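Query form — protein DUF484 domain-containing protein

QUESTION: What is the three-dimensional structure of this chain?
INPUT:
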Amino acid sequence: MVHDHVPAPAPQNGPPRVTEDEVAAWLRDHPGFLAGRPDLYRLLAPPRRVHGDGLADHMAAMITAERAATRSLAEAAREGDGFATRIQAAVLALIPSRDPAETVSQEWPALLGLEHCTLAAEGLHLPHVLSLPAGTIARLLPTGRDTLVRATPTELPLLHVEAAALVLRDALALLPGRGTPTLLVLGARHAAALPSRGAAAQLQFLAAALAAALSRS
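ANSWER: The structure tokens for DUF484 domain-containing protein are given below.
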């Protein structure tokens, strides 16, 4: 008996495609899906030539999502501007300073609006400088990074000593041009005091200014 050869179906590449009708059917079965994810409204094109309460609700949700996103950006910008202004005040305090390390620990907390500011170096035992075990800085800073803002900081007692219980967010900045690895450590109680957006360039500037002040002292 001769059997007809039935070719096997061609294999599909990637996941099966979902049709528009299937998406529409799924949304009809889950009417609360978009209401629970208002951020998706920013990605949707508004319907046209449609009238009634449904369109009004859709447009209102899109406007609400857009306003929330704009408000978030504005708040981040204000935080960044405020941090830059405080950094300028901290740098100006270095100009008359005879002991920059003391200025960092004694004056910078008030000028920067922070709970704790200090210099930390490995193997050094100097006034107003926190002594760290060898290898600490390499362990704290990711490879290739010279600044870091940490929303969930670790090793608080090591870096912030008496202020450890008050610090909920911190920033680390490696000072350039130092023979001994030296770190600027900043600790904040509130997230707004140490914004993460755009902070790298500001922290680098602060660390460079401090390194220059230390080199002349």
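ADDITIONAL NOTE: DSSP finds seven helices and five strands in the chain.
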